[in-house]
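for the recovery benchmark. tokens below, seq after
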């Protein structure tokens, strides 16, 4: 019973954190703002999440569970057109994208509390994107790359567009740019096979 209440309370805190991020952005998502929203003291909130980084990583993990549960096929892979829908959805929640991007940037420093989360996440995301590309294109993409070699590029496009969009949303149409990338991917000419020397 106590465990169920604790799980329910953690879920309530994560929902409140999302609301605070949506209303105030990454910098405004302070522990005190979240604590106030759920009727806890800041010390009470620290019982569930010991640091702001721990809380924000939990929000990102929760977001990932929702995102990966809402779009993949039954085998766990995405269709590239649904990836486009995910990019569109992200464009409607700038606070979460800002939180993800800010924590990602900070996590490259040694010892950062989010480093393990992002390292593990990228291993999983690259594998998922490779499976997505293989399901759509087979063992070779139109340009000749294997799904494993193309997967990091696909992930880099998605995350890189987020940074550009956050910095200059009036100049960067993130969903349209991602659709342009998919069109480029589909129209790439296969590499001509090398002629063996006689």
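predicted aa per position
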């Amino acid at each position: 019973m106590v465990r169920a209440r604790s799980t329910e309370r953690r879920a309530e805190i994560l929902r409140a954190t999302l609301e605070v991020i949506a209303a105030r952005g990454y910098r405004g998502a302070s522990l005190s703002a979240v604590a106030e929203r759920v009727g806890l003291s800041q010390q009470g909130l620290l019982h569930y999440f010991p640091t702001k980084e721990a809380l924000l990583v939990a929000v990102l993990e929760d977001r990932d569970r929702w995102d990966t549960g809402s779009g993949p096929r039954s085998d766990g892979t995405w269709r590239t057109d649904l990836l486009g829908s995910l990019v569109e959805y992200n464009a409607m929640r700038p606070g979460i994208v800002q939180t993800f991007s800010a924590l990602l940037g900070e996590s490259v420093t040694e010892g950062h509390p989010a480093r393990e989360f992002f390292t593990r996440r990228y291993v999983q995301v690259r594998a998922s994107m490779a499976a997505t590309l293989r399901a759509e294109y087979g063992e070779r993409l139109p340009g000749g790359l294997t799904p494993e070699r193309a997967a990091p590029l696909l992930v880099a496009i998605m995350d890189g567009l987020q940074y550009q969009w956050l910095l200059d949303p009036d100049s960067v149409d993130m969903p349209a740019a991602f659709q342009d990338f998919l069109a480029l991917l589909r129209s790439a000419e296969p590499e001509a096979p090398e002629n063996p020397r006689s």
